[in-house]
Amino acid sequence: MKFMLIRRADADTENGAMPSQEMFAAMAAYNQRMTEAGVFLNGDGLRPTSDGCLIRFKNGEPTIIPGPLYPASERIAGYSVLEVPSLQAAIEWAQQWPTQDADGNVTLELRRYFSLEDFEPGAGLEQHRNLARVPNAMNVHVAFPGTCREAMQFYADVTGGQLECLLTYAETPAVEHSPPELHDRIIHASLNLRGRRLMGADLAADCYTPPQGVEVQLEYQDIEQAARTFAQLAEGGKIIMPFEATFWSPGFGMATDRFGVGWMVNVSSDNCPLATEGDSP
């Protein structure tokens, strides 16, 4: 079940008061615990309603009501999206909300998402099912010649992601059909990057081929963080394209790391709009 954990606004959040460093760290630790438990999908804080507006429709005609909006207690200051088995499980996580927030005086709200199974059959439901053809996730799987453990631990250190699985051949039924030299090697590794996963495995020498024609792409908003990540990935490897400004991004680089895996590190930008129908190539 998917729930939204809503942090209601108050006078401080509506006045734009920023969290203390203690609160900021406590919230990061809270999100990290939920990430490690596999229940945290995403979450964000919201700027005050003075930076937004209401769009209210009457008889189909919109009216724009600029912020700030009152009362503060009916507004949202932030939210987290959790994937848990029950409302009780969501409540248990909500009860662990950092007490450093507003000295422990906050109001949280839990709301369960609808799923398609909640709706009656009909044409509208079929349209939504058609949209559901899009996968819930697209992950990347990389093969290694025996260096999977070292590589995945390196990627976890570089990206700050959660290394949630390092499973050896010896720990699975596949051990009966695997040569002895594979027994202590990795059959499945998973690095969680904000819900997206870089996975990997070691292959036998006669099955392994170095990756070609494909790169793992990392997207950042902070150009300094992107540059640091690129430098770490490129160290001991080969720079294909130095990290620098391009016509589509203020920072982009390509490199092959010391494990033979190709990377693109990109800073997001609005300078690459989608082509519209009828545009010339």
UniProtKB/TrEMBL annotation:
Pfam families (UniProt xref): Glyoxalase, YCII
Domain YCII-related residues, every copy: 1-102
Family matches, as InterPro entries: Dimeric_a/b-barrel (IPR011008), Glyas_Bleomycin-R_OHBP_Dase (IPR029068), Glyas_Fos-R_dOase_dom (IPR004360), PhnB-like (IPR028973), YCII (IPR005545)
Database matches in SUPFAM superfamilies: Dimeric alpha+beta barrel, Glyoxalase/Bleomycin resistance protein/Dihydroxybiphenyl dioxygenase
Domain Glyoxalase/fosfomycin resistance/dioxygenase, residue spans: 144-264
Coiled-coil positions: none
Protein family per UniProt: Belongs to the YciI family.
The name this protein goes by in its record: VOC family protein
Organism: Vreelandella maris
Biological classification of the source: Bacteria, Pseudomonadati, Pseudomonadota, Gammaproteobacteria, Oceanospirillales
